Amino acid sequence: MSEENVELVRGGYETWRRTRELDFDLLDPDIEWVLHGTPAGDVTYEGRDAVRRWFAEQDEAWSDQWWEVQEVRESPDGRVLALVVAHALGRDSGVPVSLPLANIWTIEAGK
Length: 111
Description:
By secondary structure, the protein is an alpha+beta fold. It is 29% helix and 42% strand.
């Protein structure tokens, strides 16, 4: 099952790369999207609608954004680890930003 989960996550990033749209059908309706280390501290978005709001907030801040996937693999605890570099251009300033990230995904029942 772990390789299936790795491929599920990899496919989600590929869809976002091609379309700049997240496939919300891949997300559990009760998703918890947790961001650690933001300027506001740790922030949790609960549910698909909250995750949609997060993406809308990002679209307001950045004129362009893309994630460069470096590696996707199973983590020791069975979740999926994705090492990515987030790239963006400031909407008002045009300043480019790159930020290495580690995304950890918990997959249950194919979501």
